[in-house]
Amino acid sequence: MAEAHQAVAFQFTVTPDGIDLQLCHEALRQIYLSGLHSWKKRFIRFKNGVMTGVYPGSPGGFMVVVGAYLSYNKYNQLDPSQAVNSITRALLLSLPLSLHLSLPLAVGGVLVGTGLWVSIIFVMRNVLKCLLSWHGWMYVQHGSVSWSAKLWMVLVKVFSGRKPMLYSFQNSLPRLPVPPVKDTCRRYLESARPLMDDEQYARMEGLAKDFEKNLGPRLQWYLKLKSWWASNYVSDWWEEYIYLRGRGPIMVNSNYYAMDFLYVFPTSVQAARAGNAIHSIMLYRRKLDRAQIKPVPLCSAQWERMFNTTRVPGAETDVLQHVNDSKHIAVFHRGRFYKVWVFYDGRLLLPREIEQQMDRILNDQSEPAPGEAFLAALTAGARTPWANARVTYFSRGKNKQSLDAIEKAAFFVTLDDTQQRYDAGSPVASLTSYAKSLLHGQCFDRWFDKSFNLIIFKNGTMGLNAEHSWADAPIIGHLWEHVLSSDPKMSYTEEGHCCGEPHPNLPGPQRMQWDIPAECQEVIQSSLSVARTLAEDVDSHIIPFSDFGKGLIKKCRTSPDAFIQIALQLAHFRDKGKFCLTYEASMTRLFREGRTETVRSCTNETCAFVRAMLLTCTRGEECLKLLKDAAEKHQSLYRLAMTGMGIDRHLFCLYVVSKYLGEESAFLKEVLSEPWRLSTSQTPLQQVELFDLVRHPEYVSSGGGFGPVADDGYGVSYIIVGENLINFHISSKHSSPETDSHRFGGNIRQAMLDILALFQLDKKSNK
């Protein structure tokens, strides 16, 4: 370790004259500042809890209401002391005569005024809840706003109060409704029809009707009961059974990644880029702790575990471990782990000071301890071996202390030894290498259990790898937008360093200590072998599609998302010669503790359009009409998913209840065993105001991606950036003879161009 630092608060020696204490004032000062910082955070949390608890009211509103009520009483000579009970009056009468004549009036006025204020809050909160339960605004035609939607927006703004905080809307959000079993079965059969022949469909229809008539109502009763009792009838089971109980590797299969700017490279100094990025992330955490992130009327519960969170492996199920505060980060470089404090003198380190710490790590010439270099491979392999190894080898001594330092860190940082970047001369190869490095790296240089990993490459490019169970991609995407937008503002010196000066007395990073026995090293190597096999099988391909973007799509009077989803169906049929069950993620954060729902975007209407496009005898007008029908159907399904009327989460919960009751359902078993051979997701750009793509079109993000869900399927993530760019991230497996990510990418590009050509925009513009 290049820097070693030990601080002791005091020293003492025993002399003939007694004990001589030598106090270290600097250590005591740091203890004082640390305590001050801790109490300040507690006060802020308490204040935020009060503000959220009385929302949409406020302490200022309380003073206004009580003051107005007292003034009204005084003006009209009313006696509100009648509202005070006899016990209170007896206590007041024990006071001196000069007080007990006027004090009951004031106390009674305050008590009645407080009751009036609470009543106003109750009414406003319930009115806001009713407003947020109305989803008619989603059915307004694209490009227009109805009077009802305008009135709704005004009323929501009025009843939201002046300055709502991040979690202010939580108590006003409606609960996720439980759809009728009959509707869910009907919509399921409709979604399954294009994927089955007549015989298969008739059989599934019989299973669905039997379930709807017999077992379904009984399971539904339990779900209804849960929906009345719990905040959300889906989310806790979804987190546990879909994520935490999975025993396979989370690397590739669950974790996902986010990329840096596509065309801009702010600095080539690795430590400097880390300095600005880490500082920006910690500023975001400060805003999060203070609930100062700009809220929208959506559930914000997923933000709570963004920082200081780790997925801890268990023999049968994992658990999410979250601590309220963490003042350090964990850093990995060249096989060594470091604990880096990001606070000093009671304040957050400045970017140049963080760069100084990263430089110390990069300049450290020490070698990893035996087994340390590949230790993180435990988080990349299967969960049960990692759980057993954690209990056996990391539950005591220095191993436990070091593991605690990683798991309780604010987040994990990797100073990567490789260079990744978009290369205009070799775009396909460079982006493929970049994506695979973020998704799995070398399988031992990411701590995949952490809520997220910040990865800084040797040439200054950066990215994220995020664990999925604690939250969905839009949450980490919100953080990443903040980091990317902050980078140009923080700027760098001409030499590429962070602005500012190094700290002359800053204690250095602490090298974590490990004692890993040979038996544990064998487990590590076994996990590494599993992870490498999985990583090498990933076939990744990224397409910066710049032929056109949402600007031209909007001129076609079509939803950009529907346009892309239909293009994916056309591309998939050209790629494989068949349709498949398709997953598109939709959020349900309009409801309390909502996460996601599935849009089954392979519909009868979409299949009809695809078949028409493949027939040379079909006229363009016919294809265009079928396209519009398919787009309208897709929009309808998306609205249903967002408003709690999707089918897949309902069927999933019915299946969970059936397992608890020990009931077997052939219908549910078949539905939940169907593979998603095309899994898709849009990465939304949520804070458009942070990026001025008109003046600075080069500051565009590449978005992010994930691994394939099915062994013989594709994973497709896309981000619509500005008016003229759509980035596609495609993944599949080399081991499948049916898939080829580069081939599929070519089919997507051609499908996008073919669909646009139907609208004949060139001819219309000439006219």
Automatic annotation (TrEMBL):
SUPFAM superfamilies: CoA-dependent acyltransferases (SSF52777). It comes from the Eukaryota. The keyword Cytoplasm does not apply. It is a multi-pass membrane protein. The keyword rRNA processing does not apply. GO terms for molecular function: carnitine O-palmitoyltransferase activity. GO terms for biological process: carnitine metabolic process; fatty acid beta-oxidation. GO terms for cellular component: mitochondrial outer membrane. Keywords: Acyltransferase, Fatty acid metabolism, Lipid metabolism, Membrane, Transferase, Transmembrane, Transmembrane helix. It is found in: Membrane. Residues 1-47 form the Carnitine O-palmitoyltransferase N-terminal domain. The active site is at residue 468. The chain crosses the membrane at residues 50-72, 101-124, 136-155. Residues 176-749 form the Choline/carnitine acyltransferase domain. Its main location: membrane. Belongs to the carnitine/choline acetyltransferase family. This is Carnitine palmitoyltransferase 1Ab (liver). It comes from Gadus morhua.
